[in-house]
Design brief:
single chain, alpha+beta, 20 helices, about 10% strand, DNA-binding
Length: about 550
DNA sequence: GGTCGGGGCGCG
DNA sequence: AAAGCGCGCCCCGACC
């Protein structure tokens, strides 16, 4: 850590969170962590206010930790469980922060604003931590909730390490791809690439010659109407049905303009440095427990740009994604026998298809409708089939939907809890009405919308639980592989395999080519471990599709 | 000059 | 009658 601010106040704790001995001042936190990391210290778990705040500096000092309890992330899980989900009040003020939380911790930084007394800050942190352990033990399912806390905390470690390592990214290939599609890089920042200018001219010409800004949906709707084409919107699904000379250049424009705006040269300049893209992950940033990222659109990288993700010379990428994760999770959650049978094989939808006259596509559509709350078109009929053939699975999501419609909360398999309904939702849905006819139609709409949310939450959040446990298990197994440099596990080893990307149900490991086989094995062991951690002895399998490639685009 | 909601679309 | 979940990000255009 830079300068004089790398000091830390440390205190050993017992398993119940009580102090063992007096706090000790360490002049160099990284060195202190290293001291606690020798052989026989596998069970050490660092308790700190926030890994996001403290771990990157350790990594820069070449030190990694294997386990931690992240007080900030844990507090958020507990608050959500106890129905205290943050909701901005009418004045837009942020939710209150509990004393001793978040900003104060094991570490103090003399460079910052007037620091709190370190001993007091440490005392507050320890008190919150001990209280968290009690609250976890009080959970309806303490072991599962503790597993969730451990996985969330490990996720923060993995996130910091992935940002530190960075995803290999060839700026030269990215630039080449952009040039092929858009024309050469424009000389100035605000200038449009040649191809977009050409397409804009073609669109305007096809619509009668008056200039039209293809980025403006309202201008497009008007210009199309003037040309005799009436459209309710300008989205792709609407436009691509239409037969008109303006449509082809317009659709091409939309695709390219988006690429240019979201992941074009400006993105490259901002986000890729020294051959690495370093996303800023927000662990648990989505209510379902999925991660988000801050800037960089790391979880929306267009598939075409995977060409630019290339392993270093002598290295490979192990690309692993969970096959049909959400339906498998539903099968295990519901314990549906027939469904579980289908999920015991390789292709889940194929296994379900017998229930739908052998039509795999129909089976898939029915399942997605059940998980998302779709009801329109043929979905209704397919859902009826699903209900008959797989009663426990559809019953499970129907129950979740009903809970949501009634304003209750639902939980993932490890106990992540969805937010309670907003005050506005309650006001709309609880409005008294003398008869169904007088009821505000908005009430039914809001109620059903929340039902779709909770219906999906139980599946999406449980799938996120699974992926998080997978990530934590894989991280641990990778660290245990004998590294080529022979460094101990507590040292960050740039020569060893490491996670570089995580996207909901997919992970990338960058590793020396000779170690690829060991990494692939670690992935499948981690997947099996995640299945056991969530569901015990279920028959449902959670297979990973794994590819060892030089370039991300060559996976699957 | 800024903020903010909507349209649209990338990813899962 | 409404009409499939979760995000982040871009641009536009209305508004202050």
């Amino acid at each position: 850590m830079p300068g004089a601010s790398g000091a830390a106040l440390l205190c050993e704790l017992a398993a119940d969170g009580s102090r063992l001995g007096e706090p000790a001042l360490a002049a160099d936190f990284a060195e202190a962590v290293a001291r606690y990391s020798g052989p026989g210290t596998d069970s050490v778990r660092w308790v700190w206010s926030s890994g996001a705040e403290h771990y990157p500096a350790l990594l820069r000092a070449g030190v990694r930790v294997s386990r931690c309890h992240d007080v900030a992330l844990t507090e958020r899980l507990l608050l959500a469980r106890d129905g205290q989900a943050a909701e901005p009040d009418l004045a837009g003020r942020p939710a209150p922060v509990r004393p001793g939380m978040i900003s104060q911790g094991v570490l103090f930084d003399s460079a910052g604003a007037e620091p709190p007394d370190p001993k007091e800050a440490l005392g507050a942190l320890l008190a919150v931590h001990a209280e968290q352990l009690r609250r976890i033990a009080d959970d309806e399912h303490p072991a599962k909730f503790a597993a969730l806390v451990a996985a969330e905390s490990a996720g923060e470690l993995a996130a910091a390490e992935m940002s530190f390592a960075g995803m290999p990214w060839r700026a030269d290939l990215h630039d080449q791809l952009l040039a092929e599609m858009l024309g050469p890089r424009p000389p100035g920042a605000g200038l449009r690439p040649a191809r977009l200018t050409e397409l804009t001219a073609q669109i305007s010409a096809a619509l009668g010659g008056r200039p039209v800004n293809p980025d403006s949906p309202s201008q497009l709707v008007r210009a199309l109407a003037a040309a005799g084409v009436r459209v309710p919107s300008t989205r792709f699904s609407v436009l691509h049905e239409i037969d008109h000379p303006a449509i082809a250049p317009l659709l091409e424009y939309k695709e390219l303009a988006r690429l240019h705006a979201a992941h074009g040269w400006a993105w490259l300049d901002t986000w890729v440095c020294d051959g690495r893209f370093r996303p800023d992950y927000v662990v648990g940033g989505v209510v379902s427990g999925r991660w988000a990222t801050r800037g960089g659109g790391a979880l929306q990288i267009p598939r075409v740009l995977r060409r630019a993700v290339v392993a270093d010379p002598g290295w490979v990428l192990v690309v692993a994604d969970a096959a049909q994760l959400e339906p498998r999770v539903l099968a295990a959650l519901a314990g549906d026998r027939a469904f579980t049978q289908a999920a015991a094989g390789g292709d889940l939808y194929e296994g379900l298809a017998t229930g739908f006259g052998g039509d795999r596509n129909q089976a898939k559509k029915a399942l997605l409708s059940a998980m998302y709350g779709g009801a329109g078109g043929e979905a209704g009929q397919l859902l009826a089939v699903l209900r008959r053939r797989f009663p426990a699975a559809s019953g499970y999501v129907e129950m979740a939907a009903r809970a949501g419609e009634e304003g209750r909360v639902v939980r993932s398999v490890l106990g992540r809890t969805c937010p309670p309904p907003s005050a506005a939702w309650r006001a709309i849905t609880e409005e008294a009405a003398d008869s169904e006819a007088e009821r505000d139609p908005g009430a039914g709409r809001a109620s059903r919308a929340r039902g779709r949310f909770t219906r999906n939450f139980v599946v999406q959040a449980s799938a996120a639980d699974w992926a998080l446990v997978l990530l934590a298990a894989l991280r641990r197994r990778l660290a245990a592989l004998p590294g080529p440099g022979g460094l101990p596990a507590w040292r960050w080893d740039p020569q060893a395999p490491h996670l570089v990307f995580f996207q909901h149900d997919e992970v990338l490991v960058h590793c020396p080519e000779p170690m690829a086989e060991a990494v692939v094995a670690a992935v499948s062991e981690a997947a099996a471990e995640a299945g056991r951690a969530l569901f015990g002895a279920t028959q449902v399998r959670f297979p990973m599709t794994t590819a060892v490639v030089g370039c991300y685009a060559d996976a699957k």
